[in-house]
Every structure is written in C-alpha cells, then in structure tokens.
Amino acid sequence: MTEDEFDAFYAAAFPRLTGQLYAFTGDHGEAQDVVQEAFVRAWDRRDRFLADSAPEAWIRTVAMRLAVSRWRRARRWLELVRRTPPPETQPGPGPEYTALVAALRDLPEAQRMAIVLHHLCDLSVEQVASETGAPVGTVKARLSRGRTELAKRLGGNEADGPVRKESGRVR
Questions:
Q1: Is 6 exposed, middle or buried (0-12, 13-18, 19+ CB in 10 A)?
Q2: 12, 21, 41, 62, 71 from 68: Cα distances, Å
Q3: What is the tens place of the pLDDT at every residue in 133-162?
Q4: How far is Cα 168 from Cα 171, in angstroms, rounded to an integer?
Q5: Every domain of the chain and the residues it spans
Q6: Cα(19)–Cα(114) distance, rounded to whole angstroms?
Q7: Beta-strand (E) ranges in 53-160?
Q8: Strand partners, 170
Q9: Considering the domain 3-83, what is its CATH architecture?
Q10: Do the beta carbons of residue 106 and residue 153 sit within 8 Å?
Q11: Which of 136, 159, 138 lies closest to 147, judged by CA?
C-alpha cells in the first residue's frame, strides 16, 4: 500500500472505526486514541497491509484489543488503589520546631550553617570546618555564639550548660 493509498484509507475508515470503538468503549476520546494507535501499527506494516483481505477489520481488531488492554490496566490499578490504605496524615510542625526554625533564620549565615551541620547533620567540628572551609577554632566560636543566641531567642538559659548527647557531642 502506498502512502497515498494509506492516507485515503485512513481518511475513509477513521471516522467509521472511531464510531464503532466509541460504541464499544463508551468514551469518544478513548475510542479515538485506540483507533489512532491501531493505525500507527498498521502504518508500520503498510507494505504488506494491502495483502490482508480486510484491513479495516484488522485495525478494528487491534483497536478493540488495545481498548480491552487499557481496561485491564485500569482495573488492576483500581484494585491496587482500593487495597492500599490512604496514607496517614502527618501533623504539621509543632510550635517548638517553628520557633527553632524562626530563631535559626535570625542567626548570621555562618553561625546558622555551623549549628545546622553540627547539630542537625551530626557532623563533627572538624567535618564542619572542612565543609565550610573555616578553621576549627572559628567553627567552635560560631557554634558557641550561635548556641548563645538561640538560647536567648528560644528562652533557654545557656548558663545551665550545654546538653550532651550519648555520643558526647554538645547539643
């Protein structure tokens, strides 16, 4: 089948096949999609397509199989969704978290970076120094000043002394 013959066949058969598949699927857009996909598959084999005695029947069969395949996929997806419980809603951040984030935002960037890397990312002072490119002494000073500022802003008392985690790091 030449390209011109295929184009003429497409122009004549597409509306008719779409109507038939619309009756089969009940969805006009779905019918157009599966008929179009069937024509794409026919295009790939157009050199031997004319040898088939009923090209329109071939396209209709392919389109119907595509529609059934889509239904099966949609049904499996629906069954999966029905079996999977909805995710539990996560509560929003508590007031302590919100206050901490607000206090961290008010710190100078260098202090905030040192505090976050050391206390939240669990890096050692040496690792923080390596990552920020600052000397170890500078990192220690930033941590000290940052903790003092955070204690003031959060209403804690730095004089109570730092809290130590099990690893021995100051928290």
A1: middle
A2: 24, 11, 17, 10, 5
A3: 999 999 999 999 999 999 998 886 544 445
A4: 9
A5: 3-83, 95-160
A6: 68
A7: none
A8: 164
A9: Orthogonal Bundle (1.10)
A10: yes
A11: 159
Contact present, 63 and 34 (Cβ < 8 Å): yes
Q: Say whether 95-160 and 3-83 share the same fold.
A: no
> C-alpha 66: how far from its chain's center?
28
Helix (H, G, I), strand (E, B) or coil at 3: helix
- Read off the pLDDT of residues 14-42 as tens digits, 9 standing for 90 and up: 999 999 898 888 889 999 999 999 999 98
- How far is the C-alpha of 108 from the C-alpha of 121, rounded, in Å? 18
Are the C-beta atoms of 118 and 93 separated by less than 8 Å? no
**Second-level CATH architecture of 95-160:** Orthogonal Bundle (1.10)
Contact 114, 121 (CB under 8 A): no
Neighbours of 160 (CB within 10 A): 8
Question: Residue 146: CB partners within 8 Å, gap ≥ 6?
Answer: 107, 111, 112, 114, 115
139 within 8 A of 147, measured Cβ to Cβ: no
Radius of gyration from C-alpha coordinates of the chain: 34
Q: How far apart are the first and last CA of the chain?
A: 78
